[in-house]
Amino acid sequence: MTPGDVIATVTYVCLVSSCASVSLRIVVRHKWLDHGLKLDDWLMIVALTVYLMFCAVIIAFTVVENRNPILKESSADLLLLLLAIGEALFMVTSIAFKTSLMIFFRQFLLERRQRYLVASITLFYCAISVLGIFLALVPCRTLSHLARKRVEGKCIPINIWNGLLYTHGAVSALSDWLFALLPILVLWKSSMPAKTKLGVTLLMVFAVCGSLCAVLRTIYTGSLHFDARYYDVNHKPSYQHVTALVINMAVLEMGIGITAASVACLMPLFRRCAGWFQRHPMTGEDICGDSLADDMP
């Protein structure tokens, strides 16, 4: 498989999982809970919508890669343009996703200073993301002839862009775990049964699994730099191979994050399924399907 094929496969898998999980989240919140959809649900829908656009750009990137195995200036211009648009869409997705995650975890915090802390970190993260959107769309003043401008050093210094991406990835990973750990500390001090505490803790940790990909994306973010070496067909690794890991990590970071955060909201569905299996052991009929509808008031 070519690097483009690998990226496309990862993207399609993340698309299916994120769409399915958010759809289930909407059904559970809208149909089975009295309060219906809340602000964090709407923000997750926004995050998914922009993520779909981001994935469409990534798929277009893989098509261009596969059709142009030998990199020329024209194809490099198009690849860099798609990367710039993709980076901007990634930042927009991350803003909606992180804000949704903050609202979800903030409801478990009782102390005002803890609530201010997670809100402040989210605001700082969003500010970095907004700056990233601006720098992604105007890296060389205009989005034309990007390859030539990068080779000639007419774009923003690579150290500035990499520094922003390193900061963005680090804050993303740290904020995810802070969002999860603070409610967990509150939870374990409560009078809940130990079994319930463990189950909720696992759900909260699962909700921030995307941060692992954020760490890897941060480590290898410098590989997105483009220079004249990649025009040489004998240069190894090629630009396609070099960028594949970072792109895959970006796709996985948001895809896993959206999926995991939405699955963490499906406790009512899990309880109904568990109750159905207890009442109908080993039957295998209408698994969590029509019987769930029958159980609904």
TrEMBL record:
<keyword id="KW-0472">Membrane</keyword>
<comment type="similarity">
    <text>Belongs to the SAT4 family.</text>
</comment>
<feature type="transmembrane region" description="Helical">
    <location>
        <begin position="200"/>
        <end position="220"/>
    </location>
</feature>
<feature type="transmembrane region" description="Helical">
    <location>
        <begin position="6"/>
        <end position="27"/>
    </location>
</feature>
<dbReference type="GO" id="GO:0016020">
    <property type="term" value="C:membrane"/>
</dbReference>
<feature type="transmembrane region" description="Helical">
    <location>
        <begin position="78"/>
        <end position="104"/>
    </location>
</feature>
<feature type="transmembrane region" description="Helical">
    <location>
        <begin position="240"/>
        <end position="270"/>
    </location>
</feature>
<keyword id="KW-1133">Transmembrane helix</keyword>
<feature type="transmembrane region" description="Helical">
    <location>
        <begin position="169"/>
        <end position="188"/>
    </location>
</feature>
<feature type="transmembrane region" description="Helical">
    <location>
        <begin position="116"/>
        <end position="138"/>
    </location>
</feature>
<dbReference type="InterPro" id="IPR052337">
    <property type="entry name" value="SAT4-like"/>
</dbReference>
<protein>
    <recommendedName>
        <fullName>Rhodopsin domain-containing protein</fullName>
    </recommendedName>
</protein>
<feature type="domain" description="Rhodopsin">
    <location>
        <begin position="24"/>
        <end position="272"/>
    </location>
</feature>
<keyword id="KW-0812">Transmembrane</keyword>
<feature type="transmembrane region" description="Helical">
    <location>
        <begin position="39"/>
        <end position="63"/>
    </location>
</feature>
<dbReference type="Pfam" id="PF20684">
    <property type="entry name" value="Fung_rhodopsin"/>
</dbReference>
<dbReference type="InterPro" id="IPR049326">
    <property type="entry name" value="Rhodopsin_dom_fungi"/>
</dbReference>
